[in-house]
User: What shape does this take?
Amino acid sequence: MGVAERKAKEKEELRALILNAAKDLFAEKGIDQTTIRSIAKEIEYSVGTVYLYFKDKNQILHELHSEGFLKLAKEMRTLFHVSDPMERLKALGRTYMSFALENTQMYDLMFNMRAPMEFVKEQEEQNWHEGSNAFDALRNTVKECMDQGYFKGHSLQPLSFTIWSCVHGMCSLYIRERVKGATGQDPEKLLYDAFEDFLLMLVKR
Amino acid sequence: MGVAERKAKEKEELRALILNAAKDLFAEKGIDQTTIRSIAKEIEYSVGTVYLYFKDKNQILHELHSEGFLKLAKEMRTLFHVSDPMERLKALGRTYMSFALENTQMYDLMFNMRAPMEFVKEQEEQNWHEGSNAFDALRNTVKECMDQGYFKGHSLQPLSFTIWSCVHGMCSLYIRERVKGATGQDPEKLLYDAFEDFLLMLVKR
DNA sequence: CAAATTTAGTGAACATTGTTCAAAATATCA
DNA sequence: TGATATTTTGAACAATGTTCACTAAATTTG
Assistant: This one.
């Protein structure tokens, strides 16, 4: 079907156009400043059109959050070749933190904002694939470390969550602007130092 | 001045009435659902009146955030009698986490929301007293631990920040509903286990 | 005490948001 | 070409934060 096929492609293209406009806008102006109207204006369509392709704003934010996870996974995948699990774990942390610092709006959307989770809740299978896949990847690496004798006396699941929490906490405090005010230090520098400090803590047997 | 005095008191009372209504409303309905109109309705005054006592919504949220810090500080102060610094550090962490779990909206306001920080930014002395006092208290205890031989090879400032980040990360992931979806586990239980796991990690010399 | 002045409070109105939907424009097909 | 189906539009709605001309009350003054 030549026509139907082309139409489907065009629909996909407009959908992608909306998503890209949204992504650009909120990397530029921030998520809060990115309105449906501003997206519509950017692509030179009307507000109504956006709602033909997306149920609501939550869906748009959810799709962008998924894109964020794809990007993060891609960056993490380059570390699979590191055979020493502890080295890989450290590298994962570093990559995670760099991602957060270089894509603050995206990170915020993925791990702090309510919108994408609201969308997940509305789905029949209320499964947060993106989150559980990411956590699985972390846990697998932690498991390998444990098999090599690291983390004696710890349990896999809580330990993995603790590691995630620690790095997330740093990134989150940074993105939500609590670091400078509380510590009086240059945030980027402190985050870097604290991360190294954390690695030191991890590596103790 | 009898009259001026009474007036000042009445002003203070209405101010407090507004703040209390706001606090009740958002512990009950959540911060996002607490509008200026709902506050005005609650105290049976008009919207305009609220704006006679507060510059804007950010100011209301900032004052409540300060109240939150007072409450947290109060709970922490009960631990000053613990003389062993490492025991005190652990207890501080436990208290911090309990506070977050029992006052989720308040915690979110204090450490995640943008509004109170926007207000701080607008002040001439852009100092986040609440945050720096809290961090100082933590750092002092960490310092005492180091003096007792804990945390060899670590530096005070980054280590203190790491500890804060870790506990904050757990609380934040919980409050922003990322825990269940990513780990597939009961969030409260995991938070509890992970915190114990973290203490284990801290205590290694 | 009555008038003038100051202070406190009101709520309609505005701008901005997400969202909807009847109508218009465009594309497809017979 | 004309009928039908699809796509797009943008005015309109509800909810929100915010403002401000007005009213009401309290206080001061002569």
